[in-house]
Structure formats: C-alpha cells, structure tokens
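Notes from the 1:1 (GR / supervisor)

We went over the backlog. Supervisor wanted to see one worked example end to end before approving the batch request, so GR pasted a single chain during the call. The sequence is below; no edits were made to it. Supervisor asked that the structure be written out right there so they could see what the output format looks like.
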Amino acid sequence: MTPFGQKLRDLRRERGIVQKDMAKALGVSPAYLSALEHGHRGQPSWPFLQKVIGYFNIIWDDAEELDNRGRASAPRGA
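Structure output shown during the call:
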C-alpha cells in the first residue's frame, strides 16, 4: 500500500463510504480506487487529487499532506 492509498482508504472508511459510491462521485471505476488503495497504481494525477480534496472537503494543510502522499506514491515493484 502506498502513502496515498493508505490515506485515501482511511478517509473513505472514517466517513463510512464504500468504494463504489466514491468512485461514482469522482467519475472513476471502483477498480481504479481499489488499485490506488492497494498500491497497484502510482502517483495520482493533479486533477484526480483535486476531485478527492473537493469530495472530502479537505482544508489547506490536509490537502497539502494528501498531495505530498500522492507524490511519494509509486506502484509496487516500481
């Protein structure tokens, strides 16, 4: 699991949101979210990060932390 994947999963679970619902709201597939959470996908795009930040209504410092985690995330085996 990548730093971003762990944080994404934590945010989702803290709010009781299932992957299917979050994926639909963000315009991605549940498989993509699962791959991000499990570290099978690398650094998320900036537009995707912006969607996640808006979806969870994340404030400045927490948004910066999420961005840093995204930048530090590489897929397994990379």
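Supervisor's comment: The mean pLDDT is 87.
Batch request approved.
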